[in-house]
Design goal:
This is Cbb3-type cytochrome oxidase component FixQ. It comes from Mucilaginibacter calamicampi. Keywords: Membrane, Transmembrane, Transmembrane helix. By secondary structure, this protein is mostly helical. The chain has one domain. The chain has three helices and no strands.
């Protein structure tokens, strides 16, 4: 089925398929990165807006385990 679409590509349809491919690659890469991201790093990033940067220095958590 996909082979039929690729054979009949003319003009602006190239842009449609290439934008779809770029979106899918981007979505898959981001999904993989989020899946393998450390839970400690996710917790640190989610707490960042709650900390006052003027009163304390934000330091990165120790990722060594």
């Amino acid at each position: 089925m996909f082979k039929q679409f690729v054979q009949n590509i003319e003009g602006p349809q190239v842009y449609l398929l290439s934008s779809l491919a770029i979106f899918l690659v981007f979505f898959i890469v981001i999904s993989i990165l989020l899946f393998y991201m450390s839970k400690q790093h996710i917790s640190y990033m989610s707490d960042m807006p709650l900390h006052d940067t003027d009163s304390q220095l934000l330091t990165l958590p120790n990722h060594e385990e």
